[in-house]
Specification:
This protein has 307 residues and is α/β, with parallel strands linked by helices. The protein contains nine helices and 14 strands. The protein folds into two domains: 155 residues, Rossmann fold, CATH 3.40.50; 124 residues, 3-Layer(aba) Sandwich (Rossmann fold). The strands form two sheets. A nine-stranded mixed β-sheet has the order 7-6-5-8-4-1-2-3-9, with helices on both faces. A five-stranded parallel β-sheet has the order 11-10-12-13-14. The radius of gyration is 21 Å and the shape is elongated. 42% of the residues are buried.
Amino acid sequence: MLAVIPVRDGALPAGAAEAAAEADGRVLLVGSRTAETDTTGLGHDVRSVELGAYAPAGWAVRLRPLLIDHDVVLLPSSPDGRDLAPRLAHSLGRPLYAGAVEVGSGRVVVSRGAGLELHTFRPHGGFVATLQPGVRDPLSGHAATTAVGAVDVTEHAAPTTPEPLPDPEIAALLPPDVATMDLSEAPRILGGGAGLDTADRFAQLARIAADLDAAMGATRVITDRNWVGHERQIGTTGVVVDPSLYLAFGVSGAVQHTSGLGHPDHVISVNTDPHCPMMQMSDLAIVADANAVVDELEGLLAERGAR
């Protein structure tokens, strides 16, 4: 198995470390300024191909000679990974398993039905897959024991194509809107649970999140009430996330929720129950009514904006 990681201007995409770990530390960096990419902890066998500006159709054809001998080609399910994977599958003449949560040489487990179903496939022959971020520990396995620091990266000359291939033309590259970006890629998340008393609280939480350059999420009990769309559900039966900061308002911390949180650098929780699991795993636990704290926080942000 080989993890193919699309790189833009030397920056790794979301889920890169997990895809590398699933491939046991065998990695091919492709894209622009790959020589500048920080490979710390990424793997024990890291190679790179400088391909320049993002052009997935052209990349797929040019990468074929480098990938044809690898039975399993794995990409992170980042925007570029999801875009490049079907083109690679077509170029290699292989099936694509998108949205996988587990990938092996003879077994692929894929999430379907908005995360409510897991389908197991046993491919015969080579295939291409995308791995959802947040579904495995990037520090486990062989890659962790051998990639404790930056490794020497073997650079490959980029294969050429007989003639240029048609590719989408990028008119502008805009930063993500935190209000609408994929929750799995949000660096800061404000999550609400059953401790918030009405559906209006989640519109309020979304406004606060926007002021803090964060995304709004919710627990399963909230999406089951149809107060928030399923795409905003955090957890193993929803969206698996890995933010640097997570603020939980009225979230008790059921295991399916906390298992989908990844490894946030900082966790702040507001709850009336000081002994609930969410409070126990927090760096800062505030024993208070989450509804009152949300009101107070919105007021403080409004005052700051008025100054």
